[in-house]
Specification:
By secondary structure, the chain is α+β, with helices and mostly antiparallel strands. Helix content is about 15%, strand content about 40%. The chain contains three helices and eight strands; from the N terminus they run βββααββββαβ. The chain has an eight-stranded antiparallel beta sheet. A hairpin with a 4-residue loop joins strand 2 and strand 3. The longest helix is centred in the middle third of the chain and has 14 residues. The termini are close together.
């Protein structure tokens, strides 16, 4: 099914998942969709390998953690998710050097905590992994302050954005 992209989320310079200046990064892009889900698109390289031509399970987990944790920004743009709990189920191998999509949505949202689910989708739409996560909401400004960073932690993604995505 096709969904319109409402907004592209910011990325970071040094992040392992989306870092624009991290040579080992997946260079992941994040798109807020019309159905209030978040989609990420990544292309893993041999750096992200486990067994030959397969993405490492820890990398799969990191992508799912990121996409679920970021999904709160659709409802609360100033919030960030800090992981409390993350459960992953691996179903299929994820190949390297092919586009990988992940989708996530909020399933429960309270004043301080939110929960969400997500999945990794292969090019043919097959679900390769699923996840459930619980997160504490934290304002991005507090996260920056607590880590000694600055507002360059989050930067605009200047790459072209699709008008719609399919999964």
């Amino acid at each position: 099914m096709k969904y319109k992209v409402k907004r592209k989320q910011q990325v970071s310079k040094g992040c392992f998942i989306c870092g624009t200046e991290n040579h080992e990064s997946l260079k992941t892009k994040f798109y807020e969709l019309e159905n209030n889900e978040l989609m990420s698109i990544s292309t893993p390289t041999p750096t992200h390998q486990s067994y030959p031509d397969r993405m490492h399970g820890g990398i799969i987990s990191a992508i799912l953690d990121e996409v679920i944790g970021r999904s709160i920004m659709i409802l609360e743009p100033g919030a960030w998710g800090v992981t409390v709990e993350l459960n992953i189920k691996y179903k299929k191998p994820v190949p390297l050097s092919k586009q990988v999509k992940a989708t996530a949505r909020i399933t429960r949202n309270t004043r301080l905590i939110f929960e969400g689910t997500g999945e990794i989708l292969l090019e043919d739409g097959t679900v390769a992994a699923t996840a459930y996560g619980k997160y504490v909401k934290m304002p991005i400004e507090k996260l920056i302050q607590d880590t000694g960073g600055d507002m360059s932690l989050m930067i605009d993604d200047e790459t072209p954005s699709p008008e719609e995505v399919e999964y």
